[in-house]
Every structure is written in C-alpha cells, then in structure tokens.
C-alpha cells in the first residue's frame, strides 16, 4: 500500500460504523467460549504467589569501596550511598537512551524535512549532545563514589522496561515527526523528575559538587522540556505536519 492509498483507507476498527451488524456482533459474544479457564481474579492470585516469594528485579550494586571499607562509616549512610548509586545507574541508562532517541528523531527529521513550527536539525543535535554530556557526567559521578558505571542497577533495569515503547515509536518508519516528538515529550517529563529526585538525594548525603552539577543538568533538561512541549503543541495545531 502506497501513501496515497493509505491516506484514502478507512479505519474499520469501530463497530458503530455498521449499525446493522452491531447487534449481531454483541449477541455473538455470549456464544464465545474462553480459550482457557479462569478470570482476572485468578490471574491476580497467581501473580501474588510470586509476590509472596519476595523475588526482586535485580540486586543492589555493591556499596562503593571507600564507604564499605571505612570502619567508622555509619551503616545507614552506607545504605543511602548504595541507593544513590542505584539511582545514578538509572540516570546513566536514561541519558544513554536519550541520546539514541534523539538520534532516531534526527533521522526522522532528515527523512521528512523541517516542518513549520517544528525543530531544526541543529536544535535536535544540540539537545542530543546535552544528553551525551549528562551521560558522561553521571558516569564520572559513579566512578568518583567508587561505584562501577557498567553495573545495571535495579532502577536502571526498571527504567529500561518502562521506556521500551519509546524507541519503538521513534524507529517505526510509519510514525511522523510530530508523533516522534510526542514520544520524546514522555521521555523529557520522566527525565526532569529523575534529575529532581537525584538532586534531593545527593544534597541530603552532602555531595555538594555533584549536586551543583546535577542542578545545572536539570536546568538544561527543563529547557529541553519547554522546547519539546512547544514543538508538539505547534505541530499538533498544524494538520499538514501530522501526515509528514
């Protein structure tokens, strides 16, 4: 199917477009037999048996060497630093994914061309480069704490699962630049909250230099979010952009 045929195609997913068949369809539902026994309550009960087993998504990273080897270190502080390294691992994974998302969006822009009200290529490259700088900054922060930036922490693992749909939207050749930007908007919203939480945790543990760097990163991310919001809004108001 070419683009002209696609544009002319009719969406047949709704049943109300053919009222004469709707009654027959609804009546036939009572004749349909489930393919397996049980219902939603049974599925929830089955999941809860695993909840009761206390299984976890991954394991916390080892405590940073300088904290774990200090006999005077407060145990609660060692645990808190472990939480910080876990969340740093999450931020590291997210910033790396951000670079890839913007690379995919730049490729989509190259294919569609610049749209009125949308981003320029240089603007997207600048944001992609910011994400890469943030990735390297977090990597350095983990190393400074004595952690291992190659560890996939539990929070990093969960972040990857939660964001699985975003690269699928960006790399789908059928999606438009406007739809790609909507996926980027989801990532930027999560990213902003992630940096805010990381700053709070870092300040509480007294890592002032790192907290200052993270606040600068958040300021940059807030600018990204404002730009992406603006592009999404302007392209949504431009019907031609929705098909480009």
> Approximately how much beta-strand content do the residues carry?
under 5%
Query: Which structural class best describes the helix and strand composition?
Result: mainly alpha
The helix content, as a percent range, equals over 70%
Mean pLDDT: 88
Q: Could you give a short account of the major beta sheet?
A: none
Silhouette: flat
Please report the distance between the alpha carbons of the first and last residues. 17 Å
What is the overall number of helices? 11
Computed over alpha carbons, the radius of gyration is 24 Å
How many extended strands? Answer: 0
The topology string of helices and strands comes to: HHHHHHHHHHH
What does this molecule look like?
With 244 residues, this protein is an all-alpha fold. Helix content is 71%, strand content 0%. It is built from 11 helices and no strands. The two termini are 17 Å apart. The mean pLDDT is 88.
Topology:
Layout: H1 3-8, H2 19-29, H3 40-52, H4 65-68, H5 75-112, H6 121-144, H7 154-162, H8 165-171, H9 177-204, H10 208-236, H11 239-242
Helix pairs in contact: 5-6, 5-7, 5-8, 5-9, 6-10, 8-9, 9-10
Question: Quick gist of this model?
Answer:
InterPro entries: Ferritin-like, Ferritin-like_SF. By secondary structure, this protein is mainly alpha-helical.
Features:
244 residues, mainly alpha, 11 helices
């Amino acid at each position: 199917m070419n683009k002209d045929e696609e544009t002319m195609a009719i969406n047949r997913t709704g049943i109300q477009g053919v009222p004469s068949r709707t009654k027959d369809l609804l009546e036939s539902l009572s004749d349909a037999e489930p393919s397996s026994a049980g219902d939603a309550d049974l599925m929830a009960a089955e999941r809860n048996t695993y909840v009761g087993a206390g299984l976890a998504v991954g394991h916390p990273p080892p405590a940073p060497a300088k904290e774990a080897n200090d006999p005077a270190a407060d145990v609660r502080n060692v645990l808190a630093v472990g939480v910080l390294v876990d969340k740093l691992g999450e931020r590291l994974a997210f910033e790396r994914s951000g670079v890839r998302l913007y690379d995919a969006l730049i490729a989509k822009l190259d294919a569609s061309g610049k749209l009125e009200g949308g981003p320029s290529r240089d603007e997207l490259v600048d944001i992609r480069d910011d994400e890469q700088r943030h990735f390297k900054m977090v990597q350095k922060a983990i190393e400074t704490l004595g952690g291992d930036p190659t560890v996939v922490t539990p929070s990093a693992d969960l972040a990857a699962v939660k964001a699985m749909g975003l690269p699928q939207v960006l790399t789908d050749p059928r999606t438009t630049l406007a739809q790609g930007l909507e996926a980027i908007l989801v990532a930027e919203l999560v990213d902003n909250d992630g940096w805010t939480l990381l700053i709070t945790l870092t300040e509480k543990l007294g890592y002032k230099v790192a907290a200052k760097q993270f606040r600068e990163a958040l300021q940059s991310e807030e600018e990204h979010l404002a730009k992406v919001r603006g592009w999404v809004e302007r392209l949504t108001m431009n019907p031609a952009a929705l098909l480009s």
